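2024-03-11 09:14:02 INFO worker-7 job=invfold-0412 stage=load source=structure_tokens
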């Protein structure tokens, strides 16, 4: 995992996905046909994570945990393009983030991730 600022994230987003502007997380599959223990790389924008955390009232650390899990789920084949796939992916992220916690995750952590009606 790498943590970068928005400037670097904008550069990576443009270079590898051809999209302008920053994003919160990128996941790159680094597996090759040869057997390797390396799954991929997850890159998180700390600037965007802090902004998003502030907007919904959670800690930046918790937001970064969510982004890391989100990126890892992409690497193992989850896709959030389309409402059904997004609901499935976010349900799995909730499940993973909830494991081993003494208190439930704040509901606002999921704010804005899925359309209200689909």
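2024-03-11 09:14:09 INFO worker-7 stage=emit residues=118
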């Amino acid at each position: 995992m790498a943590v970068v600022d928005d400037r670097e994230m904008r550069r990576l987003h443009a270079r590898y996905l051809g999209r302008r502007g920053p994003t919160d997380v990128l996941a790159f599959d680094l597996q090759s046909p040869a057997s390797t223990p390396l799954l991929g790389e997850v890159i998180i924008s700390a600037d965007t994570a802090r902004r998003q955390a502030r907007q919904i009232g959670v800690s930046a650390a918790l937001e970064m945990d969510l982004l890391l899990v989100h990126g890892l789920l992409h690497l193992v084949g989850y896709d959030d393009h389309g409402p059904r796939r997004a609901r499935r992916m976010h349900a799995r992220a909730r499940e993973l983030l909830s494991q081993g916690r003494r208190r439930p995750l704040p509901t606002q952590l999921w704010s804005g991730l899925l359309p209200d009606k689909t």
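2024-03-11 09:14:09 INFO worker-7 stage=report msg="The radius of gyration is 15 Å."
2024-03-11 09:14:10 INFO worker-7 job finished
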